[in-house]
Amino acid sequence: MNTQILSDAVASYMSANPWIILLIIWSIVWKLIALWKAAKRNHLTLFIVLGVVNTAGILEIAYIAYLYFKEKKFLDK
């Protein structure tokens, strides 16, 4: 396939669906935060899973929420 055709197709799709860019930015921000927290806490398995699996930020937010509630002792009852 010609790279120019592919490039035009991607540009056309992105201009027709600008919410995709917001979703990508949203996902990257949450992924970086979650990866930072997993690395800081030596959670190697979660670091790998978070780095490989793309869930539009859902898995990352769940991990960060888990850490928050654990630190606040909500989960240790």
Walk me through what this model shows.
This protein has about 80 residues and is an all-alpha fold. It has one domain. The protein is about 75% helix and about 0% strand. The chain contains four helices and no strands. The longest helix has 22 residues, at about 20-40. The chain is elongated, with a radius of gyration of 17 Å. The termini are far apart.
Short description:
The chain is mostly helical. Helices cover 77% and strands 0% of the residues.
Shape: elongated
> How many strands, what sense, and barrel or not for the largest sheet?
none
Counting structural domains, the number is 1
**Class per helix and strand makeup:** mainly alpha
Strand element count: 0
Please tell me the overall pLDDT.
84
Give the count of helical stretches.
4
- What is the chain-wise order of helices and strands? HHHH
* Uncertain regions spanning at least 5 consecutive residues: none
**Residue fraction in strands:** under 5%
Please give the alpha-carbon distance between the first and last residues: 59 Å
Helix content: over 70%
Cα-atom Rg, whole angstroms?
A: 17 Å
